[in-house]
Amino acid sequence: MDFYVISPLSNLEPMKLGDRLFVLAHLWVQSEEYRQFIYSQIDEEYDRWITLDNSAAERALVTEDILIQICKDLLPSEVIAPDVLFDKDATIQNAINFKARMEQEGLLEVVDIFFCPQGKTKEDWLEAYEWGLKQDWIRTIGFSKIAVPQAWLPEWKDDQGIKEARHMAYDYLKEKNLLLKPIHCLGQGDPTEFAYYDHPAMRSTDSVYPVFAAVNGQDFNVDHTTRTPTPHNFLETYDMSQVDMGLVESNVEYLKKQCRVFHSAAYLY
Predict the structure, then answer these.
(1) Contact 14/5 with Cβ under 8 angstroms?
(2) Would you list the domain boundaries of the chain?
């Protein structure tokens, strides 16, 4: 699996440690510095894969119009269609509307659509997931760190149970032969989650948590199980000037190794 690093506006340099670029729509709108940093990475790494996130998990009010305009300006590799937390029907309808708009704007042939299933229950989430599989215009499906625990482990709240819930979803989909499109895990709990995935459909993951863990002095080599909930305004307001960047790099490296356990084994055998 590939890994994207997310970092606060006060220091975007950790994003360079990632395999790919994960662009948050609300930060793109808010910050000229953020836009220029992303453009600089495109100039330096012109073939780097870019995922444009709709910022639903950040509870940001990014409209379809804004997301379309960012697609025109940035031309990302893929864009996450607007989803509505825990609402299967609204998320599916939004995706249909977004696809039509992308087609109308001439973007559908150059920017892939990424779909993030939602639902209050496991049954709802699975219906949304299987709907996404059936749409040939949906290229990638997301395992949300919020939606999957809500559906599979509803008793777990506030950035807890992410690994356990996504393992349950993965096991079920693998058993039913439903891992048919690339999967991206949105966000992170315990970084050892990713060593479990032994199916090639598990493409990538992103997170700010290796950075936030370093802010809290958490070294993944010592403690990888603690998951302190990430404040919603962390990316916009936190001052990174006193953070140990060596610890950030160490945490990212630890997570990358977890993401590549299966790939290393496949290569060896």
Answers:
(1) yes
(2) 2-268
